[in-house]
Amino acid sequence: MSQEFPFNIYAKDCPSRVFFERLSDKWSMLIIGLLVQETKRFNQLKREVEGISQKVLSQKLKQLERDGLVHREVQATVPVTVKYSLTPLGVSFTGIIDEMKVWAEGNVMQMLEAQREYDLANA
């Protein structure tokens, strides 16, 4: 039985579109995917999310914190230690990310072959 929601993501003014956009962002998904494992410091995330710049990581963490998916904890040490973890809302999204990860890893070869065939046919 389907659940009724007051929002329609296909409507242009639906607020869920912003959330949908955020959660379909590769960096956001990779960050959440790592934080489900354990609480991490900024530099740990930077090392583990290969290819992300410091600026983009900082922006994405702020967005995810604002959206209620990530919790930022500042510890009064010298130097200051900042740790990131998932909120219950963030944890609730990790199953979807895991399913997408498994699907992507399981189907990437088919996608690459389709791209190769397309490129050859349209060269």
Automatic annotation (TrEMBL):
CDD domains: HTH_ARSR
InterPro entries (alphabetical): ArsR-like_HTH, HTH_HxlR, WH-like_DNA-bd_sf, WH_DNA-bd_sf
Highest rank taxon of the organism: Bacteria
Keyword Heme appears in the UniProt entry: no
HTH hxlR-type domain residues: 14-112
Single biological process term from Gene Ontology: regulation of DNA-templated transcription
UniProt keyword terms in alphabetical order: DNA-binding, Transcription, Transcription regulation
GO molecular function (one): DNA binding
Database matches in Pfam families: HxlR
Keyword Disulfide bond: no
Name of the protein this chain belongs to: HxlR family transcriptional regulator
Originating species: Marinomonas communis
